[in-house]
Amino acid sequence: MADCPDLEQRDPQNLNNHVKVAFEDALGEPEGAHSIDCVWRNSYKCFNCGKNCCYKFLTTLCGIFIALYWGCEFAMITFQHVWCFTPSLRVLAIMMGCCQKFYGTIVACCLAPLCETCGLFFSKISVTNA
């Protein structure tokens, strides 16, 4: 684990590939309905300026606190799995192993003779085609 995050590639796992926030992903004029070139150019600049300023403002205001919250959330999930869920699953696996042996013995003692008797009984039936 690095002491500092990668400041160039900030989404190495492509977690947010679906988030399309470029001007071209949000706005587009079809053929035959074009605005004046200066309007389109200035719209592009305003869109990017608004998006960048707003995003930087929100991340400056909330980013650290949200990151702290998610860090605590994942810490709680890890704690639950390490200290609660995994030991509980291990206890369940041990107990079910005992139950499997217990019920296997009951089935072998009670049902096996019954199935063997039915097999002997039905083995005496013969089918002939007329």
TrEMBL record:
Q: What is its main location?
A: membrane
What keywords were assigned to this record? Cell membrane, Golgi apparatus, Membrane
Q: Which organism is it from?
A: Tegillarca granosa (Malaysian cockle)
The record describes its membrane topology as: Peripheral membrane protein
What family does this chain come from, according to its entry? Answer: Belongs to the caveolin family.
Q: Which domain of life is it from?
A: Eukaryota
UniProt-annotated location(s): Cell membrane; Golgi apparatus membrane; Membrane, Caveola
- Does the keyword Membrane belong to this entry? yes
Q: Short name of one Pfam family for this protein?
A: Caveolin
Which PANTHER family does this one have? CAVEOLIN, CAVEOLIN-2
Q: What does this protein do?
A: May act as a scaffolding protein within caveolar membranes. Interacts directly with G-protein alpha subunits and can functionally regulate their activity.
Q: What's this protein's name?
A: Caveolin
Q: Does this UniProt record's set of keywords contain Cell membrane?
A: yes
